[in-house]
User: What shape does this take?
Amino acid sequence: MNVLVFAEHQHKKFSKITLVAVRAGQLLAEKTGGTCSAAVLGTDVEGLAKQLAEYGVKTVYAVEHVALEHYVADAHAQALANLATDKGCDVVLATASAVGKDLLPRVAVRLKAGIACEITGIHDDGSFERPMYAGNAIATISVETPVKVVTVRATAFDAAAKGTAGAVEKVAATIDANALRMKFVSFNETKSDRPVLTEARIVVSGGRGLKNGENFTIVLEPLVDAMGAAMGASRAAVDAGFVPNDLQVGQTGKVVAPELYVAVGISGAIQHLAGMKDSKVIVAINKDAEAPIFQVADYGLVADLFKAVPEMKDAVEKMKQH
Amino acid sequence: MKILVAVKRVPDPNATIKVRPDGSGIVTDNVKYVVNPFCEIAIEEALRIKEKQGGAEVVLVSVGSKVAQEQLRTGLAMGADRAILVVSDTEVEPAIVARVLTKLIDTEKPELVLMGKQSIDDDSNVVGQMVAEMLGWAQATCASEVKLAADTQSAVVTREVDGGLEDLEIQLPAVVTVDLRLNEPRYASLPGIMKARKKELKEIPLAEVGIDTTATVKIHKLEPPQKRQAGKKVGSVQELVDLLHSEAKVI
Assistant: This one.
C-alpha cells in the first residue's frame, strides 16, 4: 500500500512526533509492499519539505494555499484528501496528536475510508493493534475499506532516521474556499523552558496529593527542574484546577512513555495509568501504601511528599555535582 | 435555537475492565454503566446555553441497545427536553454512529451539535469530526470555552490543543466536542427526575434510519495488556535516588 504521511509542523519545525508518524508510515509501506510519501501543508513550506525529504521518504509534497496558513480542520481536510486522491495513495496516516485527531476523521469521510485510531502496532498482514477501555484491552483491528486512514500513538514507534533523500514536489492545494466555515483566531501558547511533555526523557507528575496549584510551583517544580524533566499532572489535579489541562497525563490527556516517570501524590486511577504505564521506569511517591500506583511502580516510596520531594531535589542536585 | 447532544452509554470509568477469555469482548457482568463523562459535560453546556438564550430546545440522541434509555433519562432529568434512541442490539462502530447522527441532524435541523470529545470505552475521538465533515459544517473539538455571538450565527471556541489554547471562530451550524474543563455538570434534581419520566423518548430501530451500516473497521479480537510487575518499596529518598542512578541508570 502506498502511504501518505501528514507531516505536522510548528514554528517552521518538525517535532519528534512527526518523525514517529513517518517511521510508522514506512513500516506500514514495507509490510504491505508500497511506498511512503509525506505531505507538508501550509504557506511557503518548500524548505520544510526539503528537511523532511532527508528521512527516507519517496516524495515530500509541499502543499501550499493561502487557506493553509494556520491549521484549520476543514481547509486542511480538503487539501489532504484531494492530494491523497490525486497521487493515488491507499493510506493517509498521521500522529494521534491534537491536530491529527482533529483532522484525520474528516479526511476519512472525504475518502470514504475507515479509520484506525491511535494504533500502537502494525502486524505483517496490515492489521493494527490499538488500545481500548483505557488500555485495559488491546484490540486487533483491520480497516475494511479500499482507502484507509490511520492515526498512530507517538510513544509506540521510533522516530524515522535520516536515509536516502527523497524528492520534493510543490503542489498548489485544491480547496473550495466557499465551503470553509472555520477561522483561526489566536494561539495562546504555554511558555515553558522545560522539555515537551510527550518527548521528555524524564517526566515528573503531580496529583491531588499536592493539595493546590501553589504547591505545584513551590514543591514540585524545583524537583522537576533539578531532574531536567517535563512536568505532568493527573486528571484529578487538572479537574481541581491546580494546573492547565495540557499537562494532563492519562487516557483523555497525553500519553507518555519516558525513560523515567515520577508520580508524586498520584493514587493511580485507571485513567491515569493508561497514559504512563509504558514508561521504562516508574517511581511512585505517595503516603498511602495501598495506592494502586504502587502496583505499577518499579520503585515505591511511602512518604509524605511535602518532606520527600524537597529531599529528593537536594539528593538529585548533590548527585549531579559528583 | 435547537441544540442536539449526542450521548453514549459506557462502562463506569472507575470499573476495572476485563477481557473475556475468548477475546470476543469485555466482561460485562456486574459492570455498572453510566453516561460517558464527556457527554455529561456536553449536556451541561447545552443546558447553560438554553438558560442563557431563554428558550432553546435540547434534544438528546443516543445509538445503542435499549438499555441506553437509562442514560437518556439521566440527561432528561438534568433538564434536556426530549430524547431519541436509535436502537441496535449489536455494537455500532463510530463511523456508523456518525452516519446515524448526520441523518437525524438532517431532519432535526439543530443550529448546534454538542458531544464529548471521546467516549471512554472506545477511545476513538472521531464521531464529532466525521459528522461535521459529512454535513460540510464547521467543527471545534476539545472545547474549554464556547462563546456564542449575539446573533447566534457564529461562535468563538477555545480549544485545548498541544502546548496551549487555541481560539477558533466557527460559523453555525457547527459541531462542538467538549473537553474536561468546559464546565462542571449538574446533578439531576429529584423534581428533574420526576419530570424526566414524562418527557418524550422516541425509539427508532437502526434499520429504519436509512443509512449504510456496512462496517468500515473490523475488530478481530481483544487481548488483555501485558501486566507490569510491581517493583520494590524503598525506605528513604536517598535510597531511591541511589537506585535510580546505580540500578535503573536513569539519572
